[in-house]
Amino acid sequence: WLQVCYDVTFHVVGCDSAVINIDGQVIYPNSNGNASICLANGFYSYSVSCPGYIPTGGQIVVNGGPVSIIIVLNPILYGVTFFVNCCGEPLEGIMLTIGTTTLITGANGLAIFNLAEGDYTIEINGYIFDFSVPETSYVDADICSELTYHTTDEQGNPIEDVLISMGSNFLLTDNNGE
Description:
mainly beta, rod-shaped
C-alpha cells in the first residue's frame, strides 16, 4: 500500500539555529530559515525552539496538498532597571538612550528597558555605560559631576564670600575664589 505525502514547509523568522519538532520528528531549518518534511494527510502538532527566543508551537492539518507555515520567533526580554542619581538622590527627566530607544527617568530616577540577550551600550546624559543582558538587571548610574566656580575681580584676583546658588544649594566661595 503506497501512502502519499505532501510537503510541509516551515519558514522560521528571527533565529538562525531553530529546532522544529513535528510529532516527534526533529527537523532543522537551513540558512534561510526554511525546513521541509513530507507528511501524509492528518493532524500534526509542532513546536519550534531556539536559544534566547520564546518557544512556540501549534497544530497543522495536511489535507491533500502542500502546507506552508511562517513562524516568527520573538526574543526573550529581560527587564534592566536604571537608577539615575546624583550621590544617591534620584534625578528626574534624564534621557537614557540605547540604540534608537530613548526613555526619560521619572521622579524616582528610574527607567526600565526590556532587552534581549546581548551586549549593550547606554548613554545617560553624556555618560556611557556598557553592560550585558541577562547578567545585568540593575544599574546604579550616579552621574554627578563636580563643578568648580572661579570668581575673580577685573585684575584676576580671587574674590572670597561670593554667594553661588544652584537649585536649592547655596555656597560661598573660599579665599581662593572657588
